[in-house]
Structure formats: C-alpha cells, structure tokens
Amino acid sequence: MVLQPFMGFKQPLSEAERNFKAYAYREAVVKQLYHRMEGGLKNLAQEDQVLYVDGRTAFEGMDQTIFSDDVHFVSEEGYRLLAKQMVRPVTEEMLEKVK
User: Residue 50 in contact with residue 98, Cβ under 8 Å?
Assistant: First the structure.
C-alpha cells in the first residue's frame, strides 16, 4: 500500500516546481488530509498484513524536476524513483512467504 507522492512535501523544489502554482490554493488542505490519511492507511496495512510505503519521502533531497503538477511526474524518472522507494523495505523473508 503506497501513499501517493505529493509535490507539496518535496524539498527542495526545482525552479519549475516552485513556479507551478495552479493548485497552490489547496496545498495546506491537501497536506492536512495526507496526514490524516497516513494514520488510516497505516492501520489498514497492519490489519491486512501488507506493507505500507510513504511515497511522500521518495524524492527527499532531490532538486531535479520530478513533478509536472502537484501529483503527476514529468518523466519516467519519477516512476523509477518511486518504484525504488516501494521495494526498499521488502525483505527476503517477505519474498519467501509469497512462494
């Protein structure tokens, strides 16, 4: 289970990301909703015994342009980096359980 990345949590923003302001009016509300959703997703993941991955942190420290708007990626690189974030916590023990 993955919490969708959101540009409002990315630091630092690239120049292109800083200049994207079409949805700036809703950023504070979306961040509040993400924080509320995080708790619910963690609980649901625990109940269903599935892995929870917080996609908000997938691009921490990257100053390159990842987002084309507040949630969509500008290129395949965003998907590649998110995929790396998603598989990082998967262990060999977890993989053995699905065989």
Answer: no
Separation between Cα atoms, residue 64 and residue 10, nearest integer Å = 11
Which pair of tokens denotes residue 27? Answer: 């950023």
The model's pTM is 0.86
CATH class assigned to 2-97: alpha beta
In the chain, where the domains are located: 2-97
Low-confidence stretches of the chain (pLDDT < 50) are none
Q: Is 36 exposed, middle or buried (0-12, 13-18, 19+ CB in 10 A)?
A: exposed
Q: Which two tokens stand for residue 62?
A: 């990257």
Q: Residue 53: which H helix or E strand, with range?
A: strand 53-54
List Cβ neighbours of 44 (8 Å cut-off, separation of 6 or more).
1
| Dihedral over alpha carbons 22, 16, 7, 64 (to 10 degrees) | 170
Is the separation of the CB atoms in 53 and 1 below 8 Å? yes
